[in-house]
Each structure stands twice: as structure tokens, then as C-alpha cells.
Amino acid sequence: MTEAFEEFDMFQSQLELSTSKTQLELYLEEAKVDRKTNPNLDVLGFWKDNKLRYPELSLMARDVLSVPITTVASESAFSTGGRVIGKF
Q1: Do residues 60 and 53 touch, judged by C-beta distance below 8 A?
Q2: 61, 67 in Cβ contact below 8 A?
Q3: Which of 1, 22, 61, 63 could form a disulfide with 47 if both were Cys (CB 3.0 to 4.6 A apart)?
């Protein structure tokens, strides 16, 4: 008898997992934040504050949004005829 209940509990837990919403779906259902009315909006801070709520999304946001900005033009960065480092 207990084996049947264990199987039912396992089935029910799998059913609950399959019908639950993903983190992305939950995030997209939230109300939008208007950046014009919130001029001091800190996007990285938002994801840091919500990392427990959306753990996978916050990791993705951290990876994408924390890319450092460069001032070097891509053409000069990858050019072979450009700057050559000399002895001095």
C-alpha cells in the first residue's frame, strides 16, 4: 500500500514541475518598469536584488550586462598593419 502512495507522490511532484512556469515566463508577466520615470534605474542592481527570485536569469543578465565597454574601434583592434609594439 505504501508503495502505491510513493508512486502517486512521485507522479504528482513530476506533474507539478511540468505545469509550473519558467523563470522567464514569471519575469515577463511582471509589470514593466518605465525608464523615463526612473532615471536612476540600475539594471545590474535589479538583477542582483532578484537573484533569489530568478537565479538562472540573473546569471545570464550578469554575464551579458557586465561586458566591459571598449573605446578601441574594432578595425584597429584586429588590424595587423596598425600599431606595432617596439622595443621601447
Answers
A1: no
A2: no
A3: 61
